[in-house]
Amino acid sequence: MKLHDLVPQEGSKKNRKRVGRGISAGQGKTSGRGTKGQGSRSGGSTRLYHQGGNLPFYRRLPFLRGVGFTPINRVVYNEVNLDQLAGFVGDSEVNPETLADARLLRNKKNPVVILGRGDIDVALKVRVHRVTKGARAKIEAAGGNVDLIE
């Protein structure tokens, strides 16, 4: 085998299309760009996502995705601090219903979390969805107990 015997593999090389070289070449005159309009001009093409003046699809979607948006499945809690439980008498049960009666909840449908701000000096039976570690320690130190609602 000699250098002059080397040929590229069949179908690996293709001649480029020479446009604008007369009508007999098949790509003459308008060079396959059609007539007039943005696509026929030099440098005249639309940007990515262009939809002919309509509001683009990605802007029509509701803002539910990506960084900086509110997660759609986030759980919003009713926050109740220990100092707000001062109105309850000793040995009474604190649950979402009694907290709603005391007007301590913003939205009755949302779960309740007890936070540890303030002190408590009466024993309460607390039955809510979540309790912070500090709040649990203060409630149990006062002689109360904590049960979680599943």
3D architecture notes:
The structure is a single chain. The protein has about 150 residues and is of the alpha/beta class. The chain has a domain at about 80-150: Ribosomal Protein L15, Chain: K, domain 2, CATH 3.100.10. The protein has helices spanning about 55-60, 95-100, 135-140, and strands spanning about 80, 95, 110-115, 125-130, 130, 145-150. A three-stranded parallel sheet has the order 1-3-5. Strands 2-4-6 form a three-stranded parallel sheet. The longest helix is centred in the C-terminal third of the chain and has 9 residues, at about 135-140.
Tally of DSSP helical segments: 3
Biggest sheet architecture: 3 strands, parallel
CATH architecture of the domain at 78-148: Ribosomal Protein L15, Chain: K, domain 2
**Amino- and carboxy-terminal Cα gap:** 81 Å
How confident is the prediction overall: mean pLDDT?
90
Bin the strand percentage.
5-15%
Care to count the β-strands?
6
User: What is the CATH domain class of the domain at 78-148?
Assistant: Alpha Beta
| Rg (C-alpha, Å) | 37 Å
The oligomerization state is single chain
Structure class: alpha/beta
Q: Residue share in helices?
A: 10-25%
SSE string: HEEHEEEHE
Spatial strand arrangement across the major sheet? 1-3-5
Q: What is the global morphology? A: elongated
Within the CATH hierarchy, at the fold level, what is the topology of the domain at 78-148? Ribosomal Protein L15, Chain: K, domain 2
Q: Regions with pLDDT < 50 over 5+ consecutive residues?
A: none
